[in-house]
Write a structure and sequence with these properties.
Force generating protein of respiratory cilia. Produces force towards the minus ends of microtubules. Dynein has ATPase activity. The chain is α+β, with helices and mostly antiparallel strands. It has one helix at about 5-35, and strands spanning about 40-45, 60-65, 70-75.
């Protein structure tokens, strides 16, 4: 295995380790938003994704956390 392949495997392994944390964070954000502002909230957290969604007016949040981790939260009823 070459050096580049080894680095890719290491990066993939690190992503897999953080996946449960990201999934738990998305679930927590959704549950909190549903409780505070009513149901129909959706949350996506990740790297390197695009989106085209329908959302209620003034009910969309899109930000980057730590430089590379994107968080998208929106309400669509």
């Amino acid at each position: 295995m070459g050096e580049t392949e080894g680095k890719k495997e290491e990066a993939d392994y690190k992503r897999l380790q953080t996946f449960p944390l990201v999934r738990s964070a998305a679930k927590m954000i959704k549950e909190t938003m549903d409780k505070k502002f009513g149901s129909s909230w959706h949350v996506v957290i990740g790297e390197g994704f695009g989106f085209e969604i329908t959302h209620e007016v003034k009910n969309l949040l899109y930000l980057y956390f730590g430089g590379t981790l994107a968080v998208c939260v929106w309400k669509c009823s």
